Structure formats: structure tokens, C-alpha cells
UniProtKB/TrEMBL annotation:
It is an enzyme of class 2 (transferase). Keywords: 4Fe-4S, Iron, Iron-sulfur, Metal-binding, Methyltransferase, rRNA processing, S-adenosyl-L-methionine, Transferase. It catalyses: uridine(747) in 23S rRNA + S-adenosyl-L-methionine = 5-methyluridine(747) in 23S rRNA + S-adenosyl-L-homocysteine + H(+). GO terms for molecular function: methyltransferase activity. Belongs to the class I-like SAM-binding methyltransferase superfamily. RNA M5U methyltransferase family. RlmC subfamily. Its EC number is 2.1.1.189. S-adenosyl-L-methionine binds at residues 212, 241, 262, 307. This is 23S rRNA (uracil(747)-C(5))-methyltransferase RlmC. Pfam families: tRNA_U5-meth_tr.
Amino acid sequence: MHCALYDAGRCRSCQWITAPISEQLAAKTADLHTLLAERPVTEWCAPVCGPEQGFRNKAKMVVSGSVEKPLLGMLHRDGTPEDLCDCPLYPASFAPIFAALKPFIARAGLTPYNVARKRGELKYILLTQSQQDGGMMLRFVLRSEAKLGQLRAALPGLLTQLPQLKVITANIQPVHMAIMEGETEIFLTEQQALAERFNGVPLWIRPQSFFQTNPVVASQLYATARDWVRQLPVNHMWDLFCGVGGFGLHCATPEMTLTGIEIAPEAIACAKQSAHELGLQNLHFQALDSTQFATAQGGVPELVLVNPPRRGIGKALCDYLSQMAPEYIIYSSCNAQTMAKDIGELPGYRIERVQLFDMFPHTAHYEVLTLLVRQS
């Protein structure tokens, strides 16, 4: 993939961009083999990859510059701003949004936040696109509600210009730290969730609910988990760290009892909406801490699926899973190092199957799906 920003030395986020995808996959596969070298693996599945560019469904842009000439992109370590609107990881559909937002920021008087001076209002622009119909969610991350009236007044013109904007919010993040969003979310449109669909499964994206950034590969990840689960004699399943329910909604059948647990209420609201649309009566999604939920339960499901953040599931949950001993564990990880550490805390299980998903091309990061089977 060619990137003028990289060639000019203006952005180094894609550190592996000069290597062919085949070499990137080989290096990631070798890393995964090294991390799991101490445990035998019955089956290594072929790695899955997607498009090299234009694959991201979201942009997280730092707003800098001036209100008359805003920049959308990032700040270098020395505080120098860099405009990333031409980043080739974004689909072509993002370009008209970025182009319209710059004059809109000026019209609405949304002064970009100056980190050094701790002054200004607009900190970030967060944009998410649905692959289902091209609809988009736009979030303005503001320091306070001071400019909310001006933002509301200017929005009708933006919506006329960009009808693909289905959900627009103002997020209030008052803390002077590199935190992407605050707790307060103010909806500026009647619609509050973006409709998405993977493999025929309806999914919903709301503000402050995690959703994968590479929909092509994520769709294959969910479909693979579904296929693995369908091959197992499973009638009762837990989906821990379930997010908007992508794994559970794919894996569930009308006969299966499934409980999905996620600490973010917004994500659980999405999962419940999808389950209702699918007409699945035995799906139960709750906004709880996954570890606290699991360790407080009495019954043992045949399968526990975990999809934790980068820190992994941790020793407390590993110890409990070892104690409760479900027949199967499926571990989806965005950090193979912590996954390998967690698997080391599950000595009663053998690694039946492993598959790498190249969710983050041109970087060292990848996603991995692992099936663990209890040893008799």
C-alpha cells in the first residue's frame, strides 16, 4: 500500500507498511507460534486477511489548528499537529465528510482545543460508518457544553449537505488528559444507534459501545466462531466481555441458552435490540463486570466464550474457569501475549484450534481465535 503521509515522514502509525502483506502475515504467524510454543496445538488454521487499504469503518481525529483552519488528525509527541484526512486506511466515503466538517467547525464557532494552553472547546471528531447502508455516526467531543447551542443551530445545514449522517452526538470530556471521550453523551439527532449487519446478523452501534474497526475481517471472525460452536455439543453458553453481542448473536441457536455479559450499558442495549430482532428468546444480556458475574454463578455452561480487552481475562477469572471447568473455552484476543499468559493459567485445557485474523494490517497487531478443550 502506498501512503504519501508515510513517505513524507509525517505519520509512522503503519510501521510495517513497506512489507508485503504476505510477509506481514508470516511475521505475525511466527509471533503467535512463539507465544504458544510451550503448549501443543492440534490444528493451526490458515490466517485470515482482508483489504490492504480503505478497510477502517471509523476515524478518531484530534482537532487542532484554528477555528478558521482546523486540522483533523493527530498530534506528534512534541505537540505538532498532523492532518490525516488523506490517510489511505479510510474508505473514500470519509473524504466528503472531512471536507464538509472543516468549514462547519468554523461556521459553528467550535474552537479547536489547544492542549498546551488548555483552551478551546472541540477536542475530537469521531466518525463511524455502517457497511450495511453507508450510514454514519458523527460525535463531537467537546470540553464543555458552552458551544452546544451554536452546534445545534448549525447542524441543519450539515445534515442537508450530508444526509448519510444518521446519528450525531456531543460528548463532553472536561478532563485535560488524552482521554478520547467522557461519560456524558448528548444526542443531537432523533436516531441514537447505527444499524449494521454481519453475515445476516443485525448489529447496532451506539456511542460508547466498542465495535470492531475492520468489518471485513470482523465478519469472518464472527462467522468462524459460529462455525466452531456449531460443531460442538453445546446447549448452554456464556459470552463474556460480549460488547454489542457480535459473537453471541452469531453463535446462538433457538435451542441454546446464552448469557452475554459486558460492563458497558450502551453495548448491552445494542445486544438486546439485536436479540429482539432475531426473535431469540433464550439470550440474556446484562451490563455487569464479566469476572464478577462469572465468579458469582453456580451453574456451569458447556462453553464459555471470552473476548477481553488487551489486558486479557486475568488470573482471577482463569482460576475460576479452571475450578468450574466448562467443557470448552473459546478465547478471542486482540493481544496474543496476554492470551498466552491466560492460557498458561488454564492447565486443565488443551489447545484444539488456533486461527489468526489480520484485523490490523501494516502493524504488528492481530486478532486470534483459540478453541480450548477440557482434558479428561
